[in-house]
Amino acid sequence: MSAPNESRSIAAWCLFDFANSGYVTVIVTFVFATYFTQAIAPTPEIGTAWWGTAQSISAILIAILSPVFGAIADQTGPRKPWLALFSLLSVVATAGLWWAAPDASFAIYALVLVVIANIGFEVGQVFYNAMLPTVASPAKIGRVSGWAWGVGYAGGLLCLVAALFGLIRAEPPPFGLDAETAEPVRATALLVTAWFTVFALPLFLIVRDELGRVIAPLSAVRKGLTQLSATFRSARRQPNILRFLVARMLYNDGVNTIFAFGGIYAAGTFGMKLDEVIQLGIALNVTAGLGAVAFGWIDDHIGSKRAVIISLWAIIALGCVVLVAPDKVWFWAGALALSSFFGPVQAASRTLMARLAPPAALNEMFGLFAVTGKVISFLGPLAVGWATAATGSQRWGLATVMIFFAAGLWLLRGVEETRPAS
């Protein structure tokens, strides 16, 4: 591939991260999740429980489906059709949230759509991640992965800003939206749908794909499932990859838990108001994105494993600062520094998976990579909740997350950054 074409493909591939990150920030994390618990559910407490249950259900289904579809895609060759299918599933379900009015009768409707959108988003990531070695040369794979994470944080940030100031806080509401029925908030789902669709198009138009293989759908399913079974057996025979996947499963759950409880911790421990929590979320996206981009270069020079290890040590140290912070100033400083290593640990982990996986089984291995990101996703929030209830302190509750980082770091030290035979 010529350099200009490679640059265009890299830019288009990274832009997909920009496209889909709006879903995470606006729907899953800040805007629609809050709207559901505060306006749709009977009470915030019930809404929190229902929302958590829906996230758990989707996590289980994603853990089952990701490796299955990854194995099937390896039989048929191209990845873009699968990515298009699951992206479409996600955006259509997201668009349907527009009709989720502020009434408890819409709770099940909204939760079902969120589960479907989550599945489309996460299973699509299997094929998106597996395209990385096709897009970038081995010498650039670390920095390209870091660029994509950084661009993704920028996309989530800008989509969040557009949602807040273009719809939710706009006076008067644009397009004749009725604030009494929460239409400005519900319209953020349409914003995310348009954002995802428009910015994802360059990948499908520019990035080259694997050549297709003519095979009947049922045959592909049968062979894919057979190959999936072989993948699990193969993973057991490749202790290096298995060790990495287990390590990543642990520390990734720590990262996700901090994101999930960061706003709750800020409000409960330091009395931060909603506007302050939103400002914190925007700031965390900025620092995490900058960290991902910066560490992409470091990844290529010192290796993905070392980049992850450095990030984990930093997260543990800075996490302790956040846990003992005496006031908002210390908390803000510690949280911003801490988040600057979230992007690197995620980006370098994806790069390390691409470097460890056999080239002929990239989709399968990234399917397992997706599973390890979801299979214990309930443990971190559960540990935080139980510890908080037992001690009456959010500080002690959030401190349990450090166990996940420490355990993941200990396991990762034994991983060898070498690619197995395909």
Q: Nutshell version of this structure?
A:
With 422 residues, the protein is mainly α. The protein is built from 17 helices and no strands.
How does this model look, in words?
The chain contains 17 helices and no strands. By secondary structure, the chain is mostly helical. The chain has one domain: Growth Hormone, Chain: A (Up-down Bundle). The longest helix is centred in the first third of the chain and has 38 residues, at 3-40. It is globular and about 55 Å long. The relative contact order is 0.14. The model has no long low-confidence stretch (mean pLDDT 82).
Task: Describe the protein's topology.
Blueprint: H1 3-40, H2 44-76, H3 80-96, H4 107-130, H5 132-135, H6 141-168, H7 183-206, H8 217-237, H9 239-270, H10 274-302, H11 304-324, H12 328-339, H13 342-356, H14 362-374, H15 379-391, H16 394-399, H17 401-412
Helix pairs in contact: 1-2, 1-4, 1-6, 1-7, 2-4, 2-8, 2-14, 3-4, 3-7, 4-14, 6-7, 6-10, 6-13, 9-13, 9-14, 9-15, 9-17, 10-11, 10-12, 10-13, 11-12, 11-13, 11-17
